[in-house]
Amino acid sequence: MESILVGTASATTGEGVEAGELKDAIISSLRETALFKNVNDIKAATNASPGVKVEAKITEIKRVSAEDRNWAGVLAGKARIVVRVTVSDLTSENRIEVFEAEGRSGQTAYGGTTEEAIQRAADEIKRELVKLYAEVDQ
């Protein structure tokens, strides 16, 4: 796998900001692994080199902002995001894998924010793609 192109969307309206944050978090997490030559936004792609396309669609979200957390504390609950991820071959466009990733904020009673849930979902997506890379690279 030489390249990974990442695109995000939302199944419902109003998650444009979160979809952008998720895309940035996925790209950043994948670049940190240094396993892939190119990791970019699907919109920035210029040609189809060998690799995969990752399409992450937010199917469910429970937002908890920093303001919610400050005002309600523990009662604000935990943020949660569920993402359906489709991985396809860049050249043939054949589907390779489909999986669901979930991110939840806070492992403590205090909770956390939507941004933390997004990062946790991105990390789960990264782990699945690294596992896929190891299977393909053998």
CATH architecture assignment name: 3-Layer(aba) Sandwich
Give the overall pLDDT as a whole number. 84
Q: What is the subunit organization of this protein?
A: single chain
Order the strands across the largest sheet as they lie in space.
2-1-3-4-5
Low-confidence stretches: none
Structural class: alpha/beta
The domain tally reads 1
Portion of residues within helices? 25-40%
Total strand segments: 5
Name the CATH superfamily assignment. Answer: Anticodon-binding domain
Written overview of the protein:
Helix content is 36%, strand content 32%. The longest helix is centred in the last third of the chain and has 24 residues, at 114-137. It is elongated and about 45 Å long. The chain has a five-stranded mixed β-sheet with strand order 2-1-3-4-5. The model has no long low-confidence stretch (mean pLDDT 84). By secondary structure, it is α/β, with parallel strands linked by helices. It has helices at 16-33, 66-72, 114-137, and strands at 3-10, 38-41, 51-62, 80-89, 95-104. Strand 4 and strand 5 (95-104) form a beta hairpin. The termini are close together. The protein has a single domain (3-58, 82-102, 114-137), classed as Anticodon-binding domain (Rossmann fold).
